[in-house]
Amino acid sequence: MAKLTYKIVEHDGGWAYKVGSTFSETFPTHQDALRAAEIASAEQQVAGATDGIQYEDADGKWHDELADGRDRPQTEVSD
After folding, report:
1. Rounded distance between C-alpha atoms, residue 25 and residue 77, angstroms
2. Ramachandran region of residue 13, left (φ > 0), alpha (ψ -120 to 50) or beta?
3. Which stretches does the entry tag as region Disordered (predicted)?
């Protein structure tokens, strides 16, 4: 199972959280960014509905799969 880390960082004249190479919006304070990361982290772990999905791979081939709504990553916030 994947593990996502929400890291609090200075960004664009304020503060943001970063997951991998992706930044959140910029917040005016460290505390605001931390709270937003905690909320996003908690929401990421909520199970959804199992549903069919379709996607196209890099070679242009389409795939049909059943996405298990219970398959959620582990998350943590790193301050």
Report:
1. 16
2. left
3. 45-79
